[in-house]
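REQUEST ID: PR-0412
SUBMITTED BY: lab tech R.K.
PRIORITY: routine
TASK: structure prediction, single protein chain
INPUT:
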Amino acid sequence: MRKYPAAIATDYGGESERLEELEAALRRIAQAGFSHIHWCHEWDGEYLYSVWEMEQIREWMERYGLRAKGLHASKGSRRSIAVRDGHYRRDYTSDWEACRKAGVELVGNRVEMAARLGASEIVLHLYIPFLTFRREAGARERFFAQTERSLDELLPYCGEQGVRICLENLFDVPEDELLGAWDRLFARYPASFLGICLDAGHGYMTWRERLPEIALRYRERIFAVHLHDNCGTMDAHLLPGEGGVPWPELMAALAQTPYELPLTLEVTRQGQSEERFLADAWDAAQRLTALIAGGPAG
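STATUS: complete
OUTPUT:
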């Protein structure tokens, strides 16, 4: 039976700060059969990776025969999504110039890290303060002017490093606001620089059975995926097949995009042993890849 390459997010069991545990997680991922990782530690917050940390992670990856499929970047410190209720650190969409520049620095740090680990894309959240848009005249244009200013500054650096930014679909942003932002930004930036990370779980919460339709609408921009499942009401990060995501239809749609294998699971261990969870995750990745690549998985 054929075995397909597969990737998994590194924070499947949480984010330990102990370096021994970081290395052990990579070892366990490799032992389970995964060929690639999606580096997901510090996906939220203000942490800046040192070059020495990047090299240490790369050394561990080489030790265990792992490659990097992608990296989850951070949009800065935690804050409200729907409203502008103040200014927060390292926000690349901020209208405070020092804060915005610091946000660009943070995203640039992850671009450098992706390049050093051998990945060609980073995943980035774009928090769209849609309630503020509806309450304050001019808020929408101010927000996108700052966002585009930051992307303009990142574009040449991403080109130099060979790394694309992929915006992730979030479940707590209305469809019209999310798709409106995509349409606006994709009209301005080439696919070589800006694309989509299609998050299946978030997409199912937003679009239900229309998820494959949306994927086909934006097929030319899908370069990254986060594959996980849920029942439509909570972002549970279940293994594919444990919720309601229409996987055969979604994989058929993904096969029509420029996405390059391996698939990436962004799943969370729910209580089973780590060994059992990783084995089940690898099996799920094999089944989904077989839907795209054709033939049985083993």
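NOTES: The chain has a mean pLDDT of 96.
REVIEWED BY: pending
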